[in-house]
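Reviewer comment 2.1 asked that we show a complete input and output for one of the modelled complexes. We chose the pyridoxal-5'-phosphate case, as it is the one discussed in the main text.
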Amino acid sequence: MVGFRCHGCGAKVDAGLALAFRCPNADGDDVDHVLVVDSEAPSPSIGSETDPFLRYRAWLSPYRLAREAGLPDAAWADLVGQLDTALTTVDGHGFRVTPMAERPALAEAIGLSGALFVKDETGNVSGSHKARHLMGVMLYLRVLETARLQAGDNIRSRRLAIASCGNAALAAAVVARAANWPLDVFIPPDADMSVKARLGELGAQITICDRRPGETGDPCYLRFREAVAAGAIPFGVQGTDNGLAIEGGRTLAFEMAEEFHRIGTVPDALFVQVGGGALASALAQGLALARANGLLPRLPKLITVQTAGCAPLARAWERLDGIDLAVAAKTRSKFMWPWETTPSSLAHGILDDETYDWWAIAEGMRASGGSTVVVDEAQVAAAHRVGRTHTDIVASATGTAGLAGVIATPDAGKKIAVIFSGKER
Ligand SMILES: Cc1ncc(COP(=O)(O)O)c(C=O)c1O
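Response of the prediction step:
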């Protein structure tokens, strides 16, 4: 069985029998409920394809589920291929291994004497890494349909739903359009006009979410939860609502690990900008898998970057000092709760008031000797400026915020890696 397990309460979900998205016991207690892959593929092979969803298919549970359900390898290639063709029509191209290169001019500009590697996700589907998360979810849905598995009963009658007004919403709309699956996007009244226009072009149904009298919490997220309770499929990137979304993001780590393996190096530290936490969680899990399967001799330190305006993960990390993570998973509210003040930052895409995937990130930071770093606005702005002037990558300030962490901690190591994501619009 291809199974998922809640890292908080231990509940098991058979991905063929029930949707492996939200823990069935979530709600009502203080446990950190997030579904994770129960047992990973033993010694997965790497294909020769350049589409990461073909290249690393043996590492992905939707592929394993397809094979277990009796679909041949060619059926997976067909599902990926059909979506790839449709993505090309919708967005100009499908998924391909994205470039990573050493950037000496950028290193020099920030006073780094060693090597600085930048993985460039701005050319990925919909302009950011977010589509990786959602492609993993879509392939799972397509496998359920194709293999006629119980978890997929009547699934086409259910709409997809996401609460986001940025890169995640755009990614969801592109992938949903490619699969010809209707999508509801819940956005705030002040959402960016260009994002709204693109969502409309992609055929997403937009719901503007005003705060209702007496309501606390993010109105977009509340409306999203209501839609899911009424039958919509959670098509967002927060692990708490859709643990399987983390998996597709792990392809980013596999690509980086393979390239580091090829050039025979391991960076001392990987700096990652953190909002809801799916990206850092996916990288932590993906790098650990890459190491377990011999691609990396050791892990780079995972250093997570948030802005001073909103740093719930850094707050949790301090409180986790000396605490057993298994215990922390049962007492979530001692470590993670919504940031109290309304934040603002040039890196507005990482202002999530909670780091939903905090636990897996903390595990990754502990396993690698990493930590959190909180950057100020001058560092966010400097990273954006040098990123734009010393590379040919047109990334947003959210997407260069990992570099702000490098600027803030110049002694983190001789070889540093960052991810630039989120094309500037
Ligand atoms: C460009 C970019 N980088 C990084 C992140 C952070 O990802 P996560 O919310 O998974 O922590 C985001 C989130 O919106 C983003 O848009």
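The longest strand covers residues 301-307. We note this here for comparison with the apo prediction described in Section 3.2.
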